[in-house]
Amino acid sequence: xxxxxxxxxxxxxxxxxxxxxxxxxxxxxxxxxxxxxxxxxxxxxxxxxxxxxxxxxxxxxxxxxxxxxxxxxxxxxxxxxxxxxxxxxxxxxxxxxxxxxxxxxxxxxxxxxxxxxxxxxxxxxxxxxxxxxxxxxxxxxxxxxxxxxxxxxxxxxxxxxxxxxxxxxxxxxxxxxxxxxxxxxxxxxxxxxxxxxxxxxxxxxxxxxxxxxxxxxxxxxxxxxxxxxxxxxxxxxxxxxxxxxxxxxxxxxxxxxxxxxxxxxxxxxxxxxxxxxxxxxxxxxxxxxxxxxxxxxxxxxxxxxxxxxxxxxxxx
Length: 316
Ligand code: BDR
Ligand code: CA
What we know:
It is built from 13 helices and twelve strands. By secondary structure, it is α/β, with parallel strands linked by helices.
């Protein structure tokens, strides 16, 4: 069975990504590695522990990753992240803290060990900055050939960014790490804003979770309503909130949910468009394409899978 690692900056859509993974019988979630972004590292780790408990899966270990990008020595949560995900990352909804601690093994070592243990069975899904996977690839470059797949949420090729016209938030937090991953030769699929801004959730769906009458259903509905409300202010034209991180999990479970183009990608790391994801023109004619970028998504099928899986999980 496919083994899954989620690498999360546990905000609202990361939390929905956990629920999607736990609701998917085709995969075993063997661990969550924590990163920073929507919240600080420690808050994200706390959220991941509490959410896996609440969703009935305390067996999922949570590993602490690196606390900031490879090019800075500190990290502060942006005001916009607090507005979109809440100060605690989960829509300012309060849920019981877990009495579990994070695992003692550092996230970077866990990723390397998992690649060596599970090889092609392993799918790694980063839905925050790529800092942990870049560090793992630097430490053990051979894992690029050992790991099964990487399905990352980040970037924007055919649409504007969500930080500014050219930068998507996850790439923006650590462009150098993302560029390292993109050029590493690892088999990665980019799930960017190109597709994730097509997969939208509304109050109609969150009401179905609330109507379940369970703690998990109430949590998912309250948390996601906060996120939808933020989108009403920042992106009223969309008519819902973007299911960025859950789509990456959806593709990890079922790659046929998206259409992809093989290409060699890089990230602009110098100059005024630092953080922009683009095609690598030094490898334009290279027949070996190591990455794929999602350019189309079967929206109705994804939304159906998303709702069916998460609703079934939240019933209990
Ligand atoms: C990405 O940025 C974060 O705010 C979300 O959790 C998602 O991973 C979308 O650009
Ligand atoms: Ca995220």
